[in-house]
Amino acid sequence: MHSKVFSATPVGIDSQIVEVEADLSMGLIKFNIVGLPDKAITESSKRILAALKNSGLKIPERLITINLAPANLKKQNILFDVPIAVSILQSAKFLNLTSEFIEKSLFLGELALDGKIRPIRGVLSVAHGMLRDNKKRLIIPKQNCAEASLIKGIEIIGVESLVELVEYLRGQKNIEPTESTFDKFSEIIKKHPLDFDEVKGQNMAKRALQIAAAGMHNILFIGPPGAGKTMLAKRFATILPEMSFDEIIETTKIYSIAGLLDNKSLVLHRPFRSPHHTISQAGLVGGGSHPKPGEISLANKGVLFLDELAEFKRSTLEVLRQPMESKKVLISRANSSLEYPSEFLLVAALNPCPCGYYGDKSGKCVCTKNQIKNYFAKLSGPLLDRIDIHVNVSAVDYDEINNKNLTSKNSLLMKTEVDNAVSVQQKRNVKNAFMSSSEIEKYCKLTIEAEATLKLAFEKLNLSMRGYHKILKIARTIADLESCDIIDKKHIREAIMYRTLDKNSSVS
Fold first, then answer.
1. How far is CA 47 from CA 43, 60, 111, 211, 338, in A?
2. 235-267 pLDDT per residue, tens
3. Ordered structural domains, the chain, with CATH
4. Which residues lie across from 163 on neighbouring strands?
5. Around Cβ 258, how many Cβ atoms within 10 Å?
6. What is the C-alpha separation between 212 and 198, in angstroms, rounded?
7. pTM for this structure?
8. Distance, CA of 139 to CA of 8 (rounded, Å)
9. CB neighbours of 175 closer than 8 A, spacing ≥ 6?
10. Residue 115 backbone phi and psi in degrees, to 5
11. Residue 75 per-residue DSSP state
């Protein structure tokens, strides 16, 4: 007897429908699963038979053949136990589901040996794709219901065991669909626990971060240990614009696939990821034998902070170059290619030399010129060229730390100014950091004085065309923060201040 039900599997951050077919026929007792399953899915036959037996659902002794279609799609996630069990029960006449019910429903879940249904990864991606696939009912583990119910317009049925599922499918038990929780979660966005008013001094660095947030510019801090580079970076997300509905769903889907939602059902704040410098390439960009999103995708729509940049392996940093340009990462394997979003703002921190004190007024630096040159040689020119803003961060004076009358901009005020600048860019329909050459020509209009200043800088600093465009983009953001349509001389001069490495390279 043949039967078919529907399931789905995440592919990247999207999903694809999978048909789960079951055939029971006379012959020696055997359980075969075909359709390009991995070993974990192949082993599910033992879990499913034990779960059926321990749930009191003893099926006839038959040759069982399960087909997961399409056959050319590699199935790697342990979420087909429940649909396979339902398909077997339908084929064995334990269930009598109508074709309409089957056509509109998706089943997901992992089975325990006692018949309990365990939570799985990637439910949000499947739920998000259901409306596109004309499905209206999602039957999943109860622990995944809060996650799936973020998507409006679908019926979420949560079950805890195989027995409860069979009772529901037979009409013996009524299970109320889980209500959509997106509005509830979106109303409880909490104030960020960190604030820029806790940072004493470092006004230039805070100003640079505000410019970076307003124009989506990558930023690099260069300064001695203890100057506050990490403290500044951790507060960067507090001045970024609020996430839109689409950004929240996209980022939450990534965390769902990675299995990092925990008790949260929604990623409401822009992510802040700070991987250690010992991280591997796969850990940073994603991959592995069972591909998962890496740190750059987990930082999607948020901040990727790389502290001690020169301590990362050069080969690891080089893989950042393409995602920083394309805002996505492609992971290719023998049987499939997965694409994950990676639109992040890079904040990097770097000591000015191996000992960390080159140029510091303490005079503690003991590094030679060759040591400093070799230290910076770990970072390739193409990578540094993709970082718009370079800022020197010096140690804070004692008097500045203990000055009770010294006031500092808080995150709310800085964010308000950022939001105003972002709204200007939204009218242009382009973020400043991503402007093309033609868009720079169109939107970066300069006064005569500004043009003269830029020409002088171009000649003195031996700027490349990319460096020239970087200064124009930063100046455009500074002008947006001050609500100026035309870029003035002061905007160009401030933008040049944030190209420290250009100035250093011209001197050398």
1. 7, 17, 7, 55, 29
2. 999 999 988 888 988 999 999 999 888 766 678
3. 2-180 (3.30.230.10), 196-434 (3.40.50.300)
4. none
5. 17
6. 20
7. 0.85
8. 11
9. 157, 158, 159, 164, 168
10. 95, -5
11. B
